[in-house]
Amino acid sequence: MSQQLKETITIAGKEYQSRLIIGSGKYKDFQENLDALETSGAEIITVAIRRVNLGQNSDEPSLLEVISPETYTILPNTAGCYTADDAVRTCRMARELLGDHKLVKLEVLGDQKTLYPNVTETLIAAEILVQEGFDVMVYTSDDPLIAKRLEEIGCVAVMPLGAPIGSGLGIRNPHNIRLILENASVPIIVDAGVGTASDASIAMELGCDGVLMNTAIAEAKDPVLMASAMRKAVESGREAFLAGRMPRRLYASASSPIDGTFF
Amino acid sequence: MAVFASWQHGDVCSGLLQASNLAQVSSDEWLKAMNLFINGEPKEVEQATSLLLLLEILKMGKGRIAIELNGEIVPRSLFQQTVLQNDDALEIVQAIGGG
Predict the structure, then answer these.
(1) Domain tally for chain B?
(2) For chain A, how far is it from start to end, CA to CA, in angstroms?
(3) Of B75, B76, B98, which has the smallest distance from its Cβ to A79's Cβ?
């Protein structure tokens, strides 16, 4: 039982058992989302903030009636924002609708095709939001200087992408993620680009504090099964990291002794 | 109330008719609806509708929402006492699925 210690992650002063954060987008319905969420073991789930449809049926449940803020930590995002202004406005609305809730995921995009973050606008938005008392988990590129700057501004977690949002290409630049980790004093959570379980494990084996994913689960052929895989991947990657891996060698190193051979 | 005096019967009648037309126009003004913009769409409601009443009309009373009125967030505690005015622009948002 030596390494079965219940090791937690602390974000904005709150402890979580799970290092996996998932999204609520692209699911076929709320029930599938809830099933995947429960199977994944995630305690934090992202949501988007959008206009209410004026004609919508008030009898149908809304997302937060199925995935309750009483049970889960809701992480409102600023998806679709291309300016710091829009992102700040979105966070303020999110804080109001969730009842003085401070934890937000800041993302300011720069390009529709790649959904790559606009880091200059992100820096501006982060500064304003931190000053207004938000706990900012910030989506960014894998540039180590920007990551450090966002931490210095006061973000509670820095979330470098592994690959473009929804691309499923995995961790494209593990070296930069390592550089970010070396310099970090806040949790580093890979956000975007994870496609399958091994991608999540790789992120955790590098030493990341967590992984955030949406499409990898929602667009799997069996989302609930993939949620189970991701749960294990994040846990096993974390254990492998803590266990301290063997060194890589150019040549072989025999596993059986030479002494005592009888031939 | 209108009072007309004239030696000419016709003048009295036309004077009273004019006064009653004026009265009709005033009452129309008073009942006139006002225009709002809600989530980018125009909508007519009665004058002096409060934000709380508007949400009931739109059937958005329950559920977690946030509202911006002319660019400023209105806290829920102020919905009842916030009276809407002509050409007010509102954004009403909710949480939906997203990554």
Answers:
(1) 1
(2) 41
(3) B98
What is d(CA A202, CA A55) in angstroms, rounded to the nearest whole number? 45
What are the start-end ranges of the H helices in chain B? 9-31, 51-57
CB contact under 8 A, B95 and A49: yes
What's the ipTM? 0.90
> Contact A249/A226 with Cβ under 8 angstroms?
no
Residue B54: domain span:
9-94
Consecutive 10-residue averages of pLDDT for chain A (263 residues):
67 97 97 98 98 80 94 98 98 96 97 97 98 98 98 98 97 98 98 98 98 98 98 98 96 93 92
Task: Please judge whether A165 and B99 are an interchain contact, meaning their C-beta atoms are less than 8 angstroms apart.
Answer: yes
What is the CA angle A191-A192-A195, rounded to 5?
120
CATH code, domain carrying B56: 3.10.20.30
Residue B90 lies in a domain: yes
Residue A105 annotated among the catalytic residues of the structure: yes
